[in-house]
Amino acid sequence: MARTLILLAHPNLKRSRANRLIKDQLLNIPETVLVDLYEEHPYFYIPVAKYKALLKDCDHVVVQCPLYWYSVPALLKLWFDEVLELDFAYGTGGDALKGKSFFLSMTVGGDKEAYCSEGDNRLPLSEYLKPLKQTALICNMNWLEPCVLFGAGLCSDPELLEHAQRVQTLVRDLTLNGYQRTEVQP
Q: Which of 20, 91, 117, 174 is buried most, with the most CB atoms less than 10 Å from its CB?
């Protein structure tokens, strides 16, 4: 049994230095299963029963993805739509995810200053993440503080490695120790 299911969703991982490096850091954490959604499901067919079984058996769900037009990549959205069904993930009898942790690790192209009332995006990133948080909460999951890399495309290799190792440490701690993040992103 894997304690943590890691869902990686990047439509072109070969072109993403940050997400590719984070994936590499997450590959060998004990008691985890990492699924690269775009690699495994290039034709957007989601084997729902497979993921329901994985979700039932895990304690934590980790999502690694870039921010795509103020949301998540399309295949990840489809995964949520198809797998997190009524009476499985929520609703009457829908308690398969109750008490499990939801941890989001996200890369963002813009810098942190772009995500405020005076910035290009007019709102803080937390506003754009509300649908993900609400998804976790409606499924009775524990929403953990996200780990975000702003300015992902402009980071130096050492900065990217430091962030990827931070994500690895957070996921390892969550998986092996049930670590609940309480820190706030700087």
A: 174
In a domain, 87, yes or no: yes
23, 162 contact by CB (below 8 A)? no
Q: Kindly report the average pLDDT of the chain as a whole number.
A: 93
Residue 84 falls inside a structural domain: yes
CATH number of the domain bearing residue 145: 3.40.50.360
* Predicted structure pTM score: 0.93
3-state secondary structure 46-64: CCHHHHHHHHHHCCEEEEE
For residue 97, tell me if it sits in a domain: yes
Higher pLDDT, 121 or 154: 154
Counted domains in the chain: 1
pLDDT in tens, 120-144: 889 999 999 999 999 999 999 999 9
